[in-house]
């Protein structure tokens, strides 16, 4: 009997086949996948184990941690406020955050904050999970910090600091955290939370490291690149290491309730796959921001070598665009957008195709961004549309 349960439209049987194969081949512990074609939910599948230690089963309402998939929600919140005229995306940050002009950052714009160009990919000192619960304090620390490059002159993935930079747009213009603003404005009817209550945390899937041989990272024959990536990740002084690992989530890693309650706006979301796919469904349909706002947000602001990740990345205003960090099949390379998460998760939308997809697994891959499990599911979804 298959471990996979749920509904799949016959036209999207290929998605189910890929999902089932991932389990059969030992690439999954537990996971959920949901796909919308327009407003029609064509895939809602789940399976496996939510907690390796107890053997608790993955259920239809099991939320899972989305890592950096969270950034897309933060971006949508910031874009909605810009659409309402709260601030100018291409105007100076100092117009509404005067302190941010310190240490040579006076030329920074909100677009720089949203597109990983701010020059603040890492905190200058170690930050604990408890400290990271204070969004105002962390934003103030970044405002005072000297940038690693002049804002706008380069881009490098702001793996965790992004949340307290782009999140400060939301906090200063709405008086609410990203999680509260999103819940009030556009995610209230969806099973997704940035800042979770204890009952949600209790039923959430527990993140688990991949067992040896089970990882499914994209392959490459560029051994020089692999060597450089491994060296950078292991070097405590590299931008990659400092960006990805500080703040440290503390005991229990990203299962730590301190992190899940705080709702880091860079990597703090719990969601079910249908809930998160519903966010992209509404975004693509123009129910969160206007279609012209989304279209402008998807225009690539940066593309090419990433100072943090050491591979090519591409970003619009908060959203990833197809690149080495966001693998998309040929059918979506001009129109797809979204965000990946370090554990292998992905959220994706495509306005031209009317596609919305979310995949959330709890067995983490060992790659920073991009995962063949996710890619194969996205590929199958596009194949079904065609």
Report on this model:
There is one protein chain. The chain has 13 helices and 14 strands. It is an alpha+beta fold and 386 residues long. The protein has one domain (4-73, 180-385): Beta-lactamase (3-Layer(aba) Sandwich). Strands 1, 2, 3, 4, 11, 12 and 13 form a 7-stranded antiparallel β-sheet that branches. It has a 3-stranded antiparallel β-sheet with strand order 5-8-6. A hairpin with a 5-residue loop joins strand 11 (337-340) and strand 12 (346-350). Helix 2 (70-83) packs across helix 6 (178-185) and helix 4 packs across helix 5 (161-174). The longest helix is centred in the first third of the chain and has 14 residues, at 70-83. The protein is globular and about 60 Å long. The relative contact order is 0.19.
What would you say about this model in short?
The protein is of the alpha+beta class and 386 residues long. It contains 13 helices and 14 strands.
Keywords, separated by commas or semicolons:
386 residues; Beta-lactamase; seven-stranded antiparallel beta sheet
Number-wise, the strands total 14
**CATH fold-level label:** Beta-lactamase
**End-to-end gap:** 30 Å
Briefly note the structural class of the backbone: alpha+beta
Q: Output the CATH class name.
A: Alpha Beta
Multimeric status of the protein: single chain
**Main beta sheet: strand number and arrangement?**
7 strands, antiparallel
Query: Count of DSSP helices?
Result: 13
- From the 3D coordinates, which CATH architecture would you assign? 3-Layer(aba) Sandwich
Classified in CATH, the superfamily is DD-peptidase/beta-lactamase superfamily
Instruction: Give the low-pLDDT segments.
Output: 217-221
Q: What is the chain-wise order of helices and strands?
A: EHEEEEHHHHHEHEHHHEHHEEEEEEH
Domains (count): 1
